[in-house]
Amino acid sequence: MSHNTFGHLFRVTTWGESHGPALGCVVDGCPPGIRFTLADLQAWLDKRKPGQSRFVTQRREDDLVKVLSGVMLDEDGETMITTGTPVSMMIENTDQRSKDYGEIAKRYRPGHADYTYDVKYGIRDYRGGGRSSARETAARVAAGGLARKVVPGLTVRAALVQIGKHKINRANWDWAQVNENPFFAPDPEIVPVWEEYLDGIRKAGSSIGAVVEVIAEGVPAGIGAPIYAKLDQDIASNLMSINAVKGVEIGNGFGAAEITGEENADEMRMGNDGQPIFLSNHAGGILGGISTGQPVVARFAIKPTSSILTERRSIDSDGNNVDVRTKGRHDPCVGIRAVPIGEAMVACTIADHYLRDRGQTGRLK
Amino acid sequence: MSHNTFGHLFRVTTWGESHGPALGCVVDGCPPGIRFTLADLQAWLDKRKPGQSRFVTQRREDDLVKVLSGVMLDEDGETMITTGTPVSMMIENTDQRSKDYGEIAKRYRPGHADYTYDVKYGIRDYRGGGRSSARETAARVAAGGLARKVVPGLTVRAALVQIGKHKINRANWDWAQVNENPFFAPDPEIVPVWEEYLDGIRKAGSSIGAVVEVIAEGVPAGIGAPIYAKLDQDIASNLMSINAVKGVEIGNGFGAAEITGEENADEMRMGNDGQPIFLSNHAGGILGGISTGQPVVARFAIKPTSSILTERRSIDSDGNNVDVRTKGRHDPCVGIRAVPIGEAMVACTIADHYLRDRGQTGRLK
Amino acid sequence: MSHNTFGHLFRVTTWGESHGPALGCVVDGCPPGIRFTLADLQAWLDKRKPGQSRFVTQRREDDLVKVLSGVMLDEDGETMITTGTPVSMMIENTDQRSKDYGEIAKRYRPGHADYTYDVKYGIRDYRGGGRSSARETAARVAAGGLARKVVPGLTVRAALVQIGKHKINRANWDWAQVNENPFFAPDPEIVPVWEEYLDGIRKAGSSIGAVVEVIAEGVPAGIGAPIYAKLDQDIASNLMSINAVKGVEIGNGFGAAEITGEENADEMRMGNDGQPIFLSNHAGGILGGISTGQPVVARFAIKPTSSILTERRSIDSDGNNVDVRTKGRHDPCVGIRAVPIGEAMVACTIADHYLRDRGQTGRLK
Amino acid sequence: MSHNTFGHLFRVTTWGESHGPALGCVVDGCPPGIRFTLADLQAWLDKRKPGQSRFVTQRREDDLVKVLSGVMLDEDGETMITTGTPVSMMIENTDQRSKDYGEIAKRYRPGHADYTYDVKYGIRDYRGGGRSSARETAARVAAGGLARKVVPGLTVRAALVQIGKHKINRANWDWAQVNENPFFAPDPEIVPVWEEYLDGIRKAGSSIGAVVEVIAEGVPAGIGAPIYAKLDQDIASNLMSINAVKGVEIGNGFGAAEITGEENADEMRMGNDGQPIFLSNHAGGILGGISTGQPVVARFAIKPTSSILTERRSIDSDGNNVDVRTKGRHDPCVGIRAVPIGEAMVACTIADHYLRDRGQTGRLK
């Protein structure tokens, strides 16, 4: 597939830079008859948008999404119904301070894509990171909002499970807590720990990495495909496409390297309702690339924001040694805002596979 | 892209089951003029083939690769030269003991794809796992042999770095050791530890997970592509497509979650030769989805072989509760034979991106 | 490839309906460093836009194109330079008279896509034909403007060669005439004939078919690809995707059915400059799916506009027999405005193959 | 899509040269549970194979197809059942007379792909045309045999309707005649005319073009897709990919250019069974790229075989002027054997769209 598109039947193409007039996406392949309101989509965008707490960038963007095509308005004047044609969505950029970036037009910020874009393209939109800015992910979140409606009964949720070395206590997991704190933490006891820790990071102009866990429930058994469109493979691919992600795992993930076949096996029994039951979910809901019907569980690691106040050694595009410190408004922990993005990418992946399987096997409704 | 194909310009389509007459692949998009011998390819297949030590499956397959199209013989009668048309390669299955599998025709082996294939397709080739068998990876290794020739100066090597909880000592890393022991271990000191540990696993009819690290050197700076064909994304996707892989990471990977922006930054300086130098490689050779010119570093976790002798609870396709123990010839640690497979997948990914970038930017030779 | 996208490395995704707020396209894979102005693009859009003579629809649309991403402004404040990231272009719809279409919301206009959209999707944007409107082609023309800049030395021109049974005299062919008459006719002698004929068609509320010929000069020899991405195949595919096109031919086309191998052969000789010369071009510049270096010649047939004033028998979506006559502002011969669209599709196809071949063989600069 | 693959969900990848050991295809995406026998497939291959009358090449190939993967044998030991995994099919080349081709290793035969392959790839398998040989189409015919089973109730038939200037009388059309003469002619009265005409061509060592018409019945209404995967577009693309095809048309095709909107309209009425009826089929069963439920009608023009005995002027790969006459065993009219190939390509296209639509809209069973 090409370079700014993902998906095979539910296809998302995104466009736009940090400091252009707008960014957006085209969702091609959305089935007809899907009903949604702008408010439905906006809710997910609001979850991702900057400026919502002192722990994320103070850039102010309303991130209001517009739908430009692919829908008809229902008689209530509010509900949109997809017609099966491409859904084009656009988000205007409003808070661009291009001046902030002038001095780094030629300097390669360590950890950023500045150097590699220049090597690859020979030209680079340096304003706010241009295309490599995480602003691009706003479009994904809009697409994810649609994707959630495609698969009947699907729920995709994510939470932050680690900041630096501070991990949640999984015994405390409570979905109801996730939207009650600025970290999307499912464990209320970790919140004060993270607050204190991140305040220190933020005041030092530093940054820190994190881990997000995404759980999709209601995924029908039997979607995904051998061999090169495994459901876990496409989830890994799509999560790894998120800015700053350096690792992805499914189910037990890297933990699976440390255990035996006996420990890792998910045993089965027939349930009282005549349906198969898995007695555990080490596999993260996927076997042989195909969903088992259990929750699909994925985690991804986000590196610390590369924009930090401490000077780092670097070079510029003229071949001079320079020292770079990145001012401006940055996330001390980009992992926080990655939570709704991870959800969106998993939702899109599942919607895509659902449509493929309905086509190929005709077994899904 | 579709389901048994990967790559965009260097495209590999594989086919075949564990117990059919043969398996193979079609490599479409291999540039013309690539020179190789059958022995070149066979060397990689030999590295992957079963029966080479007591730590891998005792199935006996010669895994001899034939080239059926896409090449002309040079005057030496041995060197093949690609013509730019599809290279079809075939490996015949010779040691099929279908009888071994009769009793599991209807039983879902925990951790295997038996249940999910049945749910998805309503029919399943149960012999040796059918299409979900790791035998399919022989075709990938053949394709990888070609891919290595596509990018001038490319070297792709891998090693096993962890079995169960036993990790190598990275200070001992010595590539010369990797082919000197049955584990592809780069650390000679870990070899006796793993031998003893795996002998125990094997004798117990158990199995254990592992971690493989792949390092690609000679990757030109500037290949890869935002946003949905990032080099790390495609590597993650292709490694995750290998049987039993449950996690993938690039550079610092999940370790990046635990460190600060200062620690994670790869600083740069101009070298004495006027070329940029990175002072570290936390990024694993990729920034913003594009190669930096440093070694590309990826790791993947393989779960323990699901085929174990201990009885596990399961069900059969008629909806009965059954207990399953998997006899037959199995790898106590499939991670070992995943080493050449991981190399092949990374080589194919890099070859594909190299061709794409040569097309799109015209900057590569 | 998916449904609203064409191209493999130079990929164009279009979106938008006749009566939505806007329509547009995302051009993904445009090489970096391409320089153009909005005026460059607008010139092609102006050629396609409605209302320019009495022989085309009187709908009034300025069809002003905006570029939303993928470029940086040069210091002159006018020249745009592509950065290699997706170029998003948008054209706002301004002259929508949705009232015109109210009465056909449920009636299937013969020859239109009304019935088939309803059968396929179960919902249909009836306003102006929705997605099936030829307004969508404005986005293609914008993309074509970019494509023309991708291949050094490429010129793509088209002309109308037939309206109804009235064909041009090819001996009169003069490219300089094409923009001097409202038909894009290369033969000045046909102009009064067509004027009189089309006036009659127009006044009768009728419509008539036409044939367009596209000629691309400066196509490097050696682009295109066996077997399923032949250059002629992709040209045929992309021309056939234009609304109302019912036939496509390359070089001699259907005429090749009537002649012998001797007549059809394009003989060759070495030229005085040491370059091969073809002594004729029956093949239309393509052999075995690959360009010969001669002009690429394609023709396509456009059916008469289906919107006519005469009543036709039809049904409505409730299953009633109805009679339909289509009022509103329609082209008596849509073939006229198909001229710049055909050019755009051929330009995009050639740009795409040029990039593919540069990648795959490394032989193009 | 890539270069030796076509289709999006029903994907066919072919490989092989005229004079290699074998050729074949991989059909990826064939639904599970399709039942067929080797004899089912072989029947189509037999229709295409050489040597069946004096009007086709005297090369002797049995063209026996083997199925290497993707199926299980039913209990009758003969019926194959697809499992949903890739179906690999292989046809061995048996009658290769490479000596025949030695003298043209360096000479570019006019009308053949010799020159363009050399320009593109810099290397060329000259034996029998290598990859550009029509032998490749045997693999398509095998794939088509499977495709026919995918869509319930589908019938795809083709006939030769024109050789040189000699056209059939459509009033005589009788499908029962098609397999009763060596031309696949549906009009028995044309048979003696063509026999006499082609005998003359053959004895002169000349060749002649032809037109094939393909008709698909039982295509469900509502398959196909705007805008760049129109059913007619994909049919045009796939037919144009057949060797020597220079033109494709749907329904009225180029004839649509000559008629008015009134004449071209396919009127509708409700039938007595409550189903819509079209009163004519000028559209060839497709409106707006989507099937109407009427027969899909396509025609394609095949140029005269380029291999002729008369000397033609050409050059060789060393840049010398040479004269070329092509000995060997050639078809005086390749259009004859294109009949089953055209059927196969249309069957594959419809199967692919059927699966896509089942996925995207869920409206097909």
From TrEMBL, chains A, B, C, D:
UniProt-annotated binding residues for NADP(+): R48, R54
Binding residues for FMN: R131, S132, S133, N243, A244, G288, K303, P304, T305, S306, S307, R329
Pathway membership, UniProt: Metabolic intermediate biosynthesis; chorismate biosynthesis; chorismate from D-erythrose 4-phosphate and phosphoenolpyruvate: step 7/7
Co-factor: note: Reduced FMN (FMNH(2)).
InterPro entries named among the record's database cross-references: Chorismate_synth, Chorismate_synth_AroC_sf, Chorismate_synthase_CS
Keywords for this protein: Amino-acid biosynthesis, Aromatic amino acid biosynthesis, FAD, Flavoprotein, FMN, Lyase, NADP
Reaction catalysis annotation: 5-O-(1-carboxyvinyl)-3-phosphoshikimate = chorismate + phosphate
EC number: 4.2.3.5
Xref: SUPFAM superfamilies: Chorismate synthase, AroC
UniProt-listed Pfam families: Chorismate_synt
GO molecular function, one term: chorismate synthase activity
Subunit structure, as described in the record: Homotetramer.
Family membership: Belongs to the chorismate synthase family.
Name of this protein: Chorismate synthase
